[in-house]
Structure formats: C-alpha cells, structure tokens
Task: inverse folding
C-alpha cells in the first residue's frame, strides 16, 4: 500500500472571503479547504472511494505565539511538540536541538527502520552541493539525510525520477537550466507514478508560503490553482482501494492574504483512499502531531 504524503508549507484553513484564494477553487483536492465543492467523506471511514476527509488540525500546540516553519515542520514530521521542546516557535531552519530531534524521530527514518521503502521526491540543484557553499538545511532535508536517503539531483529530475519544488520547473528554466517545462498535470502525473515505486513518498511544496509572504492576491490565486491541478493529477494516478494520500501543513499563511505573516489558523490533514480508514489520524483534539503517527500506522498495515 503506497502512501503519498504531500507537505504544503503555509497552508491554513481560513473563512471563505475575498482574502482567501482557496475560496476560488470549485473542484479538485484543495477546494474543500476554502469552502468549495470537493466531496468530503464522513470522518472515520465509510466513504465512497474518491472522497476526501478533512481534519482541522491545531498548529499552535499550546505554545504562545504564531507557529513558525522550523518548529512546525519538526512537529509535523516527528509527532513531538517541537515548540514546547525549543521553548517557543522558531522560524526558518532548525537549530541544533531540532536537528537532533528530526534525525532521531523523523518520519522517514522511523518508517525505514520498520522495513518501509521510503523516498523524498524533491530534486536539489547542483548549486546546493557546491563545495564551500553554506548549506542551509530545512526540516525535510535534515529528515531525508538522517534517514539515509540520497537527495535527488538534476539528473534524476531530467530523467523524470524527481519533482522540483516548483513542480513546473519554471524557476529552473528561467535560470537557464536546460530542462523541460512541465504543466501542473504533467508534474502531478509524475509524482503519482513515483509513488508506486515504494511504500512512502514525501513531496514538499513551499511556494504557498513564499507567495503568502511576498505575493499579491492574484499571485496567490495562481499558486493555489496550480497546486490544486498538480495534486488532482497526482491522485488520478493512485488507486483509492490500495493507496493512501495525505496532505498537511506546518502553519497557516496563504489562506489570509490580508497579512504577509503566518497565521494562527488551523491547518488541514486531508486524507484520501486508504487513509480514510486509519483511526490514528482522528483524535479528540486534532493537531499536526497526529500526522506522523497516522502515516506510520498506515505503513504498518501494508
């Protein structure tokens, strides 16, 4: 049973309205996040194949302040309350204490220790590996490396064995790299195909957080519309009877374009396929800590 886990940075659940670009989506996986028309299953299972279950998860974790990327990502991928451990919400890249937590308790490592074939779909450019260059390591990078996963490079991207953080490759093409420009549907189909090559595949998308900080409402509409098409194509390559799709985030941002800062919004745990039946995603007080344990429980049933 392959599991596709898509981490969308800065994707919160806000009220429908003129400041929420998700409200404009009327179909596709993300439509239910903004009050659109995507089918929602009843929580706990019993839904027709193809429906989604949406859990509204807390990202604040009982720690005062606004959730941030370093502690939010660490919490999401380990199931440990990272802001409580760190003494507050930490932005940017993980510090030494968080790196140690991620290396020890990261989802990819824990799943691999239990015999699962795990992968991180994101490709890294050659510049990241240049000698002498300071390498800022994100939560996902630390987790992949600590699990023993070689980071995918441009060669894998060109062969169709990886997906870039901008899944269309537009950023790379504009930088002068000789690589094919993909539509959201082509990139999504690639991610869906790669999912079937192992037991757990992670893909990270953080342009939502970037546009939430720096973009206009029109920019945000374009970003969320593109990722919605990308995810719809990825899911189209999966079998709801056999496969599972899980989407979540570390904090809110893009759902409220009236501010350029992170928000206190709850974030989605969006489930499809076999994930609908896994009780460990559902708790009396849902939070991002439920994501890692829910995925591990799915893998134990494979």
Result:
């Amino acid at each position: 049973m392959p599991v596709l886990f898509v981490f969308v940075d800065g994707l919160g659940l806000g009220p429908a309205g003129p400041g929420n670009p998700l409200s404009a989506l009327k179909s596709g996986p993300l439509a239910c996040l903004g009050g659109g028309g995507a089918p929602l299953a009843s929580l706990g299972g019993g839904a027709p194949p193809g429906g989604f279950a949406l859990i509204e998860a807390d990202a604040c974790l009982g720690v005062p302040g606004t959730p941030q990327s370093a502690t939010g990502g660490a919490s999401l991928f380990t199931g440990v309350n990272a802001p409580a451990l760190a003494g507050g919400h930490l932005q940017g890249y993980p510090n030494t204490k968080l790196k140690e937590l991620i290396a020890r308790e990261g989802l990819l490592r824990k799943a691999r220790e239990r015999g699962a074939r795990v992968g991180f779909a994101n490709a890294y450019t050659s510049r990241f590996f240049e000698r002498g260059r300071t390498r800022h390591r994100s939560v996902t990078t630390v987790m992949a490396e600590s699990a023993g996963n070689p980071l995918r490079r441009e060669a894998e991207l060109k062969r169709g064995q990886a997906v870039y953080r901008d899944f269309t490759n537009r950023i790379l093409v504009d930088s002068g790299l000789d690589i094919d420009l993909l539509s959201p549907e082509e990139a999504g189909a690639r991610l869906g195909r790669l999912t079937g090559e192992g037991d757990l595949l992670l893909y990270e998308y953080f342009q939502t957080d970037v546009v939430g900080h720096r973009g206009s409402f029109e920019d945000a509409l374009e970003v969320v519309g593109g990722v919605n098409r990308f995810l719809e194509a990825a899911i189209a390559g999966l079998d709801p009877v056999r496969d599972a799709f899980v989407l979540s985030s570390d904090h809110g941002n893009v759902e409220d374009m009236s501010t350029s800062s992170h928000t206190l919004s709850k974030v989605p745990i969006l489930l499809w396929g076999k994930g609908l039946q896994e009780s460990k995603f559902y708790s009396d007080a849902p939070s991002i800590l439920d994501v890692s344990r829910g995925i591990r429980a799915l893998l134990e049933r494979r």
